[in-house]
Design brief:
Layout lengths: L1 H36 L4 H10 L5 H20 L5 E3 L2 H12 L1 H12 L6 E2 L5 H18 L12 H8 L42 E3 L3
Antiparallel strand pairs: 1-3, 2-3
Length: 210
């Protein structure tokens, strides 16, 4: 009798875990679809374009794609702290946040909670490195690139160079990056201590996990 009860409990737990994983998968796909098909408010676009009048429509579209990529990284793994390596994408994110009602509603639909913008502590280099690496792993994963030796830079890390910004973050400082944390959705294991690479970002901002 006791064996039957224990078996029933184990089967119930296993079934419940499968249902929970299925629910999380469906929820993530719904959020990714929302991100893919929800454009930024026109007012946000217009105010941001006024700050960067030299950008062509194609370049502006690339920057918006960069912000969409950053949002996808957070949607997939919102327990990890991420850094924003692109100045132009960060400026667009700032502009969106200023439209507080629209941004709050967007975050609730896309992430289930508010996505805060938190400037990183420039004196804490190890924290910056960890956040930048998580963004690097996630961006490579998003584009199907091997994070160790990508055939091209992921969008978030390439944009400022493509646009010719003098203060573009140097992605070469991330090579060779430490492996991602084992509990990350991107797989791998976290190496202990500092990797030795100077991957600080002078004006990085980011978002933190729970």
């Amino acid at each position: 009798m006791l064996t039957f009860v224990l078996l029933s409990v184990l089967l119930t737990l296993a079934w419940g875990w499968r249902l929970y994983r299925s629910y999380r998968h469906i929820r993530l796909q719904s959020r990714l679809a929302f991100l893919a098909y929800t454009p930024l408010p026109d007012g946000v676009r217009q105010r941001w374009r006024a700050r960067y009048p030299a950008l062509s429509p194609q370049e502006a579209a690339r920057v918006e794609q960069g912000l969409q990529q950053f949002f996808r990284l957070f949607a997939r793994n919102n327990k990890q702290a991420l850094a924003m390596p692109s100045h132009t994408v960060d400026a667009l994110w700032h502009e969106f946040i200023l439209d507080t009602r629209a941004y709050q509603a967007f975050c609730q639909e896309a992430f289930g909670r508010f996505l805060h913008h938190t400037p990183t502590d420039s004196s804490n280099r190890k924290q910056q490195q960890a956040m930048l690496r998580q963004s690097w792993y996630g961006a490579c994963h998003d584009e199907g690139l091997a994070w160790q030796q990508p055939v091209q830079l992921p969008l978030l890390f390439a944009l400022d160079y493509e646009l010719g910004l003098a203060d573009a973050f140097d992605p070469g400082l991330l090579f060779p990056p430490a492996a991602p944390a084992s509990d990350s959705l991107y797989g791998g294991t976290e190496s202990s201590g500092d990797s030795g690479s100077d991957s600080s970002c002078s004006s990085c901002s980011g978002c933190g996990g729970d």
